[in-house]
Write a structure and sequence with these properties.
CATH class of the largest domain in chain A: Alpha Beta
Distance between the termini of chain B: 28 Å
Helix content of chain B: 10-25%
CATH topology of the largest domain in chain A: Rossmann fold
CATH architecture of chain B: 2-Layer Sandwich
Number of helices of chain B: 2
Largest sheet of chain B: 2 strands, antiparallel
Order of helices and strands of chain B: EHEEHE
Strand order of the largest sheet of chain B: 1-4
CATH topology of chain B: Alpha-Beta Plaits
Strand content of chain A: 5-15%
Largest interface: A-B, 37 and 34 residues
Bound molecules: iron/sulfur cluster
Largest sheet of chain A: 3 strands, mixed
Distance between the termini of chain A: 59 Å
Helix content of chain A: 40-55%
Strand content of chain B: 15-25%
Radius of gyration of chain A: 27 Å
Structural class of chain B: alpha+beta
Number of strands of chain A: 9
Oligomer: heterodimer
Shape of chain B: globular
Strand order of the largest sheet of chain A: 3-5-4
Number of domains of chain A: 2
């Protein structure tokens, strides 16, 4: 269900009469003169609908009422950010597609195109503090701009249709929309021009560069046009990586307990427990190495192939883990088997991360997989063999 | 950031300079600065940085660029 439909709520906020394509919002004092303070919940809720908490009122325009959004994030926005980052998708974090406003935009104001994923939308509006602009939200099924452009939901077709359904040509006179550069995979500027008459200007990769981009007369310099993948950007992806592997990890852990019970007496429950714990310990070392440490320290680990990086990092983790289980607690064969388990699972998980980065080419990933999957299979089989053998 | 690099010589990006009209859109949309524009023609200066996203292909008005992710 859509939480809020921008066309269904009444409102009577007069549009501020300020011209110029880019406005610095008046101070709060001045602002109050043009607009009576409203209580969005009281004034605009309707049975069956609830106003989004980021809407602070409505602008009356030639194309109807347009919700005006806040540029600061409140507690519920931050909560949803944490939830999404942690991979917990309790709700569908979608924004209703269509037009929104920040500040007091008019027919000369820029139109910023974005996706209807709440994080993307929040990210954008947060950077627009003090500006006046229109935001045109495309329907990407709640997926961010880059991923949606790759899947062609953030597309020429969707943009052209959305421009028409919101009657954008009646709202602004400059005939121009600003599309985030990462949307270029899905949006063809030439096609959009041909089919809608609107000129597409590709904006910066990161929303936080938008104010500067606008001040520079819509010119993005090389820095603004280049994708980064910083330590923090990598770190923030790891919870989702972990969430994705919960199920296979649980299954692997159960399998490990079972094969740990195999021994001279065919099968022993107590042995399954004690040896199983050791095996799971080494599995977790591999997970930490492959799904957290390798991704975050990516450029500092030698080799270009992620699977190879995972082997290096997994080797270090295996060595550290072995300290806890050094002989006589476990024999050399057992430690070799368990170390191999750590190294191999680290390699597999590190290779998994190729799918989450903004610089790995599909052709490269394919090449890496062809090379490393056989090695990883051999690694897993050998680890299992050594581990079972060591029980006898 | 010093640009992160993936495998060498695997990108399937190809540029046909004869078709290129030098509009510069490819250089503008590429998130990895793979292209340069010299003497009214695009040129590939950093093939290994290409992630085969297809943004350049999608925006080239003269179909001068090709990329085939997944068949490398
Ligand atoms: S496919 Fe993407 S990364 Fe490669 S050159 Fe084109 S725009 Fe740049
Ligand atoms: S987009 Fe196409 S025509 Fe334009 S400069 Fe690049 S290769 Fe040449």
């Amino acid at each position: 269900m859509k939480p809020f439909d921008s066309g269904c709520c009444g409102g009577s906020v007069e549009q501020g009469k300020i011209s110029g394509s880019l406005l610095i919002q008046p101070s709060m004092e001045e602002f109050k003169k043009t607009e009576a303070p409203i209580d969005p919940l009281k004034d605009h809720d309707k049975p069956g609908y609830r106003l989004c908490s980021f809407v602070r009122g409505f602008l009356k325009t030639d194309v109807g009422l347009i919700p005006r959004v806040k540029t600061d994030l409140d507690k519920s926005d931050l909560l949803s950010t944490v939830m999404i980052r942690a991979g917990i998708k309790r709700h569908d974090y979608r924004i209703s597609p269509g037009l929104y406003a920040v500040g007091t935009p008019d027919k000369y104001s820029e139109v910023l195109v974005t996706a209807n994923f709440k994080l993307t939308f929040d990210h954008l509006r947060r950077e627009l503090n003090g500006l006046s602009a229109w935001i045109l939200v495309l329907d990407t099924n709640g997926v961010n701009v880059w991923c949606a452009a790759g899947k062609k939901t953030f597309s020429t077709h969707e943009l052209v249709n959305r421009i028409k359904t919101v009657s954008l040509s009646e709202l602004v006179t400059h005939g121009r929309v600003i599309v985030p550069q990462l949307g270029a995979t899905g949006v063809s500027a030439v096609e959009v021009k041909k089919r809608s008459g609107f000129e597409v200007v590709f904006g910066p990769v990161r929303a936080k560069d938008i104010p500067l981009f606008l001040r520079n007369n819509r010119k993005a310099d090389e820095r603004m046009r280049t994708v980064t993948f910083s330590f923090f950007e990598r770190l923030i992806l790891t919870p989702v990586e972990l969430k994705l592997i919960v199920k296979p990890v649980l299954i692997t852990a159960i399998v490990l307990f079972v094969i740990s019970g195999i021994g001279p007496g065919l099968f022993s429950i107590s042995q399954a427990g004690s040896r199983g714990l050791a095996a799971v310990f080494f599995l977790f070392a591999g997970i930490l190495s492959g799904a957290v440490i390798t991704p975050t320290f990516l450029p500092f680990i030698p080799f270009r192939e992620f699977a190879a990086k995972g082997i290096i990092s997994g080797g270090i983790f295996a060595a550290v883990a072995s300290i806890f289980f050094s002989p006589p607690m476990a024999g050399t064969t057992a430690l070799m088997g368990l170390s191999l388990l750590t190294v191999t699972s680290s390699s597999i998980l590190a290779m998994q991360f190729t799918g989450a980065t903004p610089f790995t080419s599909p052709s490269g990933v394919e090449k890496e997989m062809r090379r490393f999957i056989p090695a990883q299979a051999v690694g897993l089989l050998s680890a299992t063999g050594l581990w079972i053998y060591s029980a006898f | 950031m010093t640009a992160l690099r993936y495998l060498k010589q695997v990108s399937t990006l190809r540029l046909n300079e004869d078709l290129c009209i030098g509009c510069g859109l490819c250089a503008q949309v590429c998130p990895h600065q793979v292209f340069t524009l010299e003497n009214g023609k695009a040129g590939i200066i950093d093939l290994d940085a290409c992630m085969e996203c297809g943004a350049c292909v999608n925006n080239c008005p003269s179909k001068a660029i090709e990329v085939h992710p997944g068949v490398g």
